[in-house]
Amino acid sequence: MQTILIQLDTDLQPSVFDRVVAVDSGVGHLFSYSAVTPDTVTGLVHGAIFTRGPADLKNTAIFIGGGSAADGETLLKKVQKTFFGPMRVSVMMDSNGCNTTAAAAIASARRHMTLESVPAVVLGATGPVGLRAAELLAIEKSHVTLVSRTLERAESACAAIRSRLPEAQLTAAAADQPEKYEELCRGNSVVVAAGAAGACFLKEGALQRISGLRMAIDLNAVPPVGIADISVMDKAVDKSGVLCFGAIGVGGLKMKVHRRAVASLFESNDHILDTQAVYSLALEVAGILR
Fold it and tell me: In angstroms, rounded to a whole number, what is the distance separating the alpha carbons of residues 125 and 112?
């Protein structure tokens, strides 16, 4: 029986990127739908679960994408509520690449250092990738500072993570100037920059001025990058004692994780690939034991 991936995209046009990755993951057939909302998704899910018997439903899966991670999370909840009994299929949510990118970034860090009890700071922590990177660092038991432009947003992000990880060691902080971002990075061993395109957090030379810094990851591939000292191509490049990763340097692992995640949807009919599940796959792909 051929595999079918049903792409539910919340944007006006289904993501070409996600469609290419689906094809490269070996999907037999790809059905793509745009502008999908919680109000319109039920019929699409019913079409997925009522056309094959329970034993064959592992050959059908759903991928939720689009530019808004918040919309993707809402759609994921509605899709799950539509399932009942054995009538369900596996689902992956990766709106804006939020889960695969964050998972690849933190798995890249884990390849080179133990993160437990390590002080880490996430710049742009309230964005879709930053929030998930902070959550994954918390899973690794790092002491994480979440930085946003307003303290209220940073505190809200901390609360969201604590709702899933009550023991998470989190601190909220606010900054809106490179000098303040640099100040907040001091004393941290790991810095992850996950801001919007065009947001430069740390100016040239900042990495050398931050004492105790061991690793810096910049996930912005669009100039100007988020950390001026890091090239988008950097992959575990040592710069004055700081191990650096750029967006494309992380991107190789991200693509492997994305393809592996899509393929894994067809192993059973009850996988839910959310942030933590995608991270587990990323560690597996990276050859890291939990």
Answer: 22
Under the banding of pLDDT at 50, 70 and 90, the label for residue 196 is confident
213 closest CA partner among 200, 196, 230: 230
pLDDT of residue 221: 87
pLDDT of residue 199: 86
Read off the tokens for 237: 């490049």
Quick one: how far is CA 66 from the chain centroid?
A: 13
pLDDT in tens, 130-150: 999 999 999 999 999 999 999
b (16+ CB within 10 A) / e for 153-166: bbbebbeebeeeee
> What is the set of domains in the chain, with CATH numbers?
4-97+255-285 (3.40.50.10280), 98-250 (3.40.50.720)
Tokens (6 digits) for 54: 């329970």
Task: Tell which residue, 261, 284, 285, 266, has the closest CA to residue 99.
Answer: 261
- Provide φ and ψ at 256, rounded to 5°: -65, -40
Token pair belonging to 8: 């539910």
Rg (CA), the chain: 19
Q: Are 274 and 76 in contact (CB under 8 A)?
A: yes
Tell me the C-alpha distance between 65 and 82, whole Å. Answer: 18
Give tens-digit pLDDT for 76-100: 999 999 999 999 999 999 999 999 9
**Distance of alpha carbon 39 from alpha carbon 118, whole angstroms:** 43
